[in-house]
Amino acid sequence: MSLALTTSIAPQPPPRGVRWLDASQAASRMGIDEGHVRRLCREEWAAAGLALQRRPESGGKSCWHVREDAHSLLSRAPAAEHIPFDLGQLPEENRRELHRRRDILSAWLAALDSPSPGLRTERAITADYLARRSHEPFTSDAVYLAARVPPARARRPCGWAVEKGGAAGG
Fold first, then answer.
1. pLDDT (tens digit per residue) in 24-38
2. pTM across the whole model
3. In the chain, fewer beta carbons within 10 Å around the N or the C end?
4. What's the CA gap between 139 and 40, in Å, rounded?
């Protein structure tokens, strides 16, 4: 005689104040198709207790509902990187400075993506990058920015993709 043991881990209750959104509301907040939200519900969030199917109070077919804490884009107060920013509101001098700093960071990230032969560590690539630009006036800014980028480039600033060839996207 064999006994089959089953264990189930109950999902954590939502934090106080977290609301449930239907799939269409979630899709609207995330800026994606409702079908994609339903797929995320089925394949990821339901197992974690972040999504469930409910019948509408008025009756009818059940539909997916997602907790606001399932994804950062679902929150009522979006993260800073999700808030649109209009460069046109800045004075010209500030825009130039912002673009200059973005270009420094983008060029350094491009150097990390395609290092010179023989350079293997982030520290060596950064030292080489700074040495090649020592004659340029922004070297101290580059050192400042390089010191503040997380190790192994765990996170790039939103919208600051580096295209092939080292050109800055934006």
1. 999 988 889 999 999
2. 0.43
3. N
4. 45
